[in-house]
């Protein structure tokens, strides 16, 4: 159980890192690599950007839950 949780934690951490880097920042960020920095129908507050926000929050909450379960499991030794 502990090893499976550690694997989930590493995978969710990498996915969260990727999703955060995909967001468009003030300078364009990595998301401008796929759009070339041009104004198109896929930039700004479009469906793609909103979906990216939803996925980032969902993965962040999953990551937080993994951290809490792992921390409680190690502390109370039930893992």
Automatic annotation (TrEMBL):
<dbReference type="Pfam" id="PF03840">
    <property type="entry name" value="SecG"/>
</dbReference>
<keyword id="KW-0812">Transmembrane</keyword>
<keyword id="KW-0472">Membrane</keyword>
<keyword id="KW-1133">Transmembrane helix</keyword>
<comment type="similarity">
    <text>Belongs to the SecG family.</text>
</comment>
<comment type="function">
    <text>Involved in protein export. Participates in an early event of protein translocation.</text>
</comment>
<protein>
    <recommendedName>
        <fullName>Protein-export membrane protein SecG</fullName>
    </recommendedName>
</protein>
<feature type="transmembrane region" description="Helical">
    <location>
        <begin position="54"/>
        <end position="76"/>
    </location>
</feature>
<dbReference type="InterPro" id="IPR004692">
    <property type="entry name" value="SecG"/>
</dbReference>
<keyword id="KW-0653">Protein transport</keyword>
<dbReference type="GO" id="GO:0005886">
    <property type="term" value="C:plasma membrane"/>
</dbReference>
<keyword id="KW-0813">Transport</keyword>
<keyword id="KW-1003">Cell membrane</keyword>
<dbReference type="GO" id="GO:0015450">
    <property type="term" value="F:protein-transporting ATPase activity"/>
</dbReference>
<dbReference type="GO" id="GO:0009306">
    <property type="term" value="P:protein secretion"/>
</dbReference>
<keyword id="KW-0811">Translocation</keyword>
């Amino acid at each position: 159980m502990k090893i499976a949780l550690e694997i989930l934690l590493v995978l969710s951490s990498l996915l969260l890192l990727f999703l955060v880097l995909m967001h468009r920042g003030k300078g364009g960020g990595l998301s401008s690599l796929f759009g070339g920095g041009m104004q198109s129908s896929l930039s700004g507050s479009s469906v793609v950007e909103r979906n990216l926000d939803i996925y980032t929050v969902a993965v962040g909450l999953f990551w937080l839950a993994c951290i809490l379960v792992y921390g409680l499991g190690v502390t109370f030794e039930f893992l």
